[in-house]
Amino acid sequence: MLLRIEGAFNAVFDDKLNPFYYLGAISYWMFWIVVASGCYIYASYETSVDTTFESVEALTHKQWYAGGIMRSMHRYASDAMLLTMLLHLARHFLFDRYRSFRAFPGSPASS
C-alpha cells in the first residue's frame, strides 16, 4: 500500500521531489522553525502564574504582525513535525530498515 502511495506521489512530484523520500529532512526543518519561533515567543512571555495567559493574549492581539504569526508558525510547525516524524518512523518500519547495519549496536536485530 505504501508503495502505491509513493508511486502516486512520484507521478505528481517526480522521483527527485517526492516528499516521502525527504520526511527526515522535513522533520528536521520543522524542528528549527519550532526552535526559532519558540525563542521569539519566549522573549515576550511572562512565566508568572498570574500573567501567563495575559502575556500570550498580548502577544497574539497586540503584535498580530509578528507575535500572532510566530505563534501560529510555532503551532503548525510542531504539528507538521510530529506528523512527518510519525510517517518517517512508519516508513522505516514498513520497509524493514531498522535491521542489518542500521540496527543499534548490541540489539538483538544486529546479530
What are its keywords?
111 residues; mainly alpha; single chain
Could you explain the architecture of this structure?
- This protein is elongated.
- It has a domain of 77 residues.
- The chain is built from four helices and no strands.
- With 111 residues, the protein is mostly helical.
Query: How are helices and strands ordered from N to C?
Result: HHHH
The helix content, as a percent range, equals 55-70%
What class would the helix/strand composition place it in? mainly alpha
Cα gyration radius (Å) = 20 Å
Overall spatial form: elongated
Main sheet: strands, sense, barrel: none
How far do the termini sit from each other? 30 Å
How large is the count of helical segments? Answer: 4
Q: What are the low-pLDDT stretches, counting only 5+ consecutive residues below 50? A: none
Strand content: under 5%
Average pLDDT, rounded to a whole number, is 85
The total strand number stands at 0
